[in-house]
Amino acid sequence: MIFGDTDLWGSGDEKGYHTLGKLECYGLILNISPCESAPCKNGGVCVPEYERNSYHCECKPGFCGTHCKRGGNRTCSDIKYCNPEAKSGSYVIDPDGEGGVKPFKVFCNMTDKGGIGVTVVSHDSENRTQVNGYEDPGSYWRNVTYDEASLIQLASLTASSFHCEQFIKYECYNSRLLLNGSMFGWWVSRDDENMTYWGGVNSVPFKCACGLNNTCADRSYGCNCDKNDWKWREDSGLLTDKCKLPVIQMRFGDTGPSSNNKEEGYHTLGKLECYGLTY
């Protein structure tokens, strides 16, 4: 403390008094770890950095990101995201994580679609198959069974993927398909719904791909097969509504005996393919 103006030789008796109290300290200083909130997920280890009042996460193999939230084995895209060098092959995925549906085996194509990691699920109805001798609408049916996966497991895969698709094709010889609503053929969604559109279309009723751009063999119909002439024709394309996929059944008709010629068709159904991240 510094003071002045207390000169004894002045005209008056100048003086002053000072008082300084004791230094008193109280209260607790809590040394809280930056990892107190457990910020690292999926089994990642939080490493505190006290000098910066921060932390970093050391992720388990297969996970990455600031908080280890990305990656894992939910889909092939998740696997590829944190393992850029991952090779194509068979993998076990768990789309809804621990505690959900049982993990299942798929094929991961790590080079297709720009190397994003495509989950591929095969089934028992991929071969080109003849339809003949079934005249009534939908009287022919083909149930589709997927390899090593239930419909519940596949629904969890589509929900965990940004995009899913499945190729479908019908080759027809005087065999009608959607016929502007008087359907002879259709596909069945995973929820057992008879779908009214064909591959290459996303939910527009009674349309095949040619019906969207007005290029069908007979433009008064929505599909090439609906021209119903004695020529081989085809309607094909990708189904992309992941809330409806995968296809669980295909139905066809109008392939009964004819007095002039033989009506027939062939169906082909591709593998279910899903890719892309949802976070």
UniProtKB/TrEMBL annotation:
PROSITE patterns membership: EGF_1 (PS00022), EGF_2 (PS01186), EGF_3 (PS50026), NC1_FIB (PS51461)
Chief site of localization: secreted
Location of the protein in the cell: Secreted
Keyword tags: Collagen, Disulfide bond, EGF-like domain, Secreted
S-S bonds: 40-57, 59-68
Gene Ontology MF, one: extracellular matrix structural constituent
NCBIfam families linked: GGGWT_bact
Name under which the protein is recorded: EGF-like domain-containing protein
Species of the source: Pocillopora damicornis
